[in-house]
Write a structure and sequence with these properties.
Layout lengths: L6 E4 L4 H12 L8 E4 L12 E3 L2 H7 L2 E4 L17 E4 L6 H8 L4 E4 L10 E7 L5 H13 L1 E5 L3 H10 L5 H16 L4 H22 L3 H11 L2 H11 L2 H19 L4
Parallel strand pairs: 1-2, 1-4, 2-3, 4-5, 5-6, 7-8
Antiparallel strand pairs: 6-7
Helix pairs in contact: 1-4, 5-10, 6-7, 8-9
Length: 264
């Protein structure tokens, strides 16, 4: 733990801001007294040993690293002077140049954790401006390793794409799970049994992939080669346009991500 590093989270009462706060405190990156959090409407009962405020500039003045965790549409009203400080945005779409201009600092980072940060299982891609040097990058890696897994990527294009791919967190697996549950109920299973069956399959698949580190495509081919019930289901899903639907959905998410960073 760094005895001197001070972190401020604008939007610390929100789910993502709170998840990041929990992760960095549990990882011992900073002491609670060196964490500042701001809120708009209601202060959270969490982090009682940290500093809470409704004044974002007061938060910024108390911090070395300022994490912006607000909705992109609310960001234009966040008028913080962060001159010389490290500003980290976890908002979708907002460009590095815009962050630098609004907050009067050249040390800016775009990052995109997802909802799994709450359980320290987020995938977080990030990119930094040229003025962010190695000591700052080390801090960013610490913060987002505490939230799960992180990668510094090559371009803002990569961040925009990954906003749709990994920023969704559990949404896409949940979409698959909901369709599977509905099908199971249609075939006579109770909702409780269907939910337990499908949830256990998806949770088990995630843990197996993590442990065995196999390519998902290789796993699919293994089941196809076996030519059993799973192969019959996969072949029908392919024929019904499963791959095309996923590709179109991710393309739509990418287009939306890019558009969110453009001025209205």
């Amino acid at each position: 733990m760094s005895g001197s590093l001070r972190i401020g989270i604008v939007g610390g009462a929100g789910w993502l801001g709170g998840a990041i706060a929990t992760s960095i405190l549990e990882a011992g990156i900073i002491a609670p007294k060196n964490l500042s959090l701001s809120y708009r409407r209601e202060r959270s009962g969490r982090f009682p040993d940290s500093f809470w405020t409704t004044d974002n500039q007061e938060l910024a003045d108390r911090a070395d690293v300022i994490i912006l965790s607000v909705r992109p549409q609310d960001w234009p009203a966040v008028s913080i002077d962060a001159s010389g400080k490290l500003v980290v945005s976890v908002m979708a779409g907002i460009r590095l140049a815009a962050l630098s201009a609004q907050h009067q600092t050249e040390r800016v980072v775009r990052a995109l954790p997802n909802a799994a940060a709450e359980v320290s299982c987020s995938y977080t891609p990030w990119i930094a401006s040229n003025h962010v040097l190695e000591p700052d990058r080390a801090v960013i890696r610490q913060i987002f390793n505490a939230c799960g897994v992180q990668d510094e990527v090559a371009s803002e294009h990569d961040i925009d794409y990954l906003t749709g791919l990994t920023g969704s967190g559990p949404a896409f697996p949940a979409l698959l799970a909901a369709a599977m549950m509905d099908h199971a109920v249609d075939h006579g299973l109770t909702r409780d049994v269907a939910e337990r069956a499908v949830s256990t399959v998806l949770i088990g698949a995630g843990r197996l992939l993590e442990r065995r580190q196999e390519c998902p495509g290789d796993i699919v081919r293994t089941f196809l080669d076996y030519r059993g019930t799973t192969a019959a289901a996969i072949n029908e899903m392919h024929a019904s346009g499963f791959d095309a639907a996923v590709h179109k959905g991710l393309s739509a998410a990418f287009i939306k991500s890019v558009s969110m960073g453009k001025a209205p």
